[in-house]
Structures are given as structure tokens and as C-alpha cells.
Amino acid sequence: MAIEESKEMYLETIFLLSQKNTEVRSIDISEYMGYSKPSVSRAMGLLKDGGYIEEDYKSGIVLTEKGKKKAEAVYERHKTLTKMFISLGVDEKTATEDACKIEHYISDATYGAIKKHFEKYGV
């Protein structure tokens, strides 16, 4: 997994977990993603160093404004691509899995064209 993809996956996971829970902890991320606790701990350190998260024992892991912006962008791509695949006749499970893979690699230009198309035609 590329570094950028990994970072985006962690940020998206923190974003999704924060929508469900009042506090996000490393163990929650580990369980959600199926990664070991040491792997998650290392990733949290990198995200913290990059200014994407803040972490303390009281409030857990919290996205910074920079982290939230990136996470929301990745999640939007995920939702749009999933919707596109489903509209093409792909089953929901496959559409979701494929969107998760593609969301990290698709260019801004291509994604922008897809998003514009779906907004124009209301799909």
C-alpha cells in the first residue's frame, strides 16, 4: 500500500468512526481496519507529525482541520464512485470495494469530470 493511500485510509477511518463515536481510540481503528495495534500506533504518530490529527488520553484521536478536510475529500470520492458503479449495474458490495481501491489513485481531473457528470444528470 502506498504511503498516500495508507494515510488516506486512516484519515477516512478516523472520520467515519468519529461520526459514530464520541471518542476515537487506536484500538477502535485497529479493529475497524483489521490492522495490528503497533501498525496503527505508528500510523497515528505519522499523522500527528503531519498535522492531520491530535491525540491525548482524554479526547482520544481527533482530526485537525487539515485532517478533516482531507478525510472528507476521500470519503466524498468513495461515495461518488460507489454511486457511479452501482448506477452502472455493479452490486453494492463490489461497487464499495472497487471505489475504496480507486479513490486513492484517480486524478483530480477525472474525479472532477465524474462528479460534474453526476451532478448534471442527477444520478
Domain unit count: 2
Whole-number average pLDDT? 92
Rg computed from alpha carbons, rounded to a whole number of angstroms: 15 Å
- Number of E-state strands: 2
User: Structural class, judged by helices and strands?
Assistant: mainly alpha
Helix content: over 70%
Write the CATH fold name of the largest domain.
Answer: Arc Repressor Mutant, subunit A
| Principal-axes shape call | elongated
Corresponding CATH superfamily of the largest domain: Winged helix-like DNA-binding domain superfamily/Winged helix DNA-binding domain
Task: Kindly describe this structure.
The protein has 123 residues and is mainly alpha-helical. It is built from six helices and two strands. Strands 1-2 form a two-stranded antiparallel ribbon. The chain is elongated and about 45 Å long. The model has no long low-confidence stretch (mean pLDDT 92).
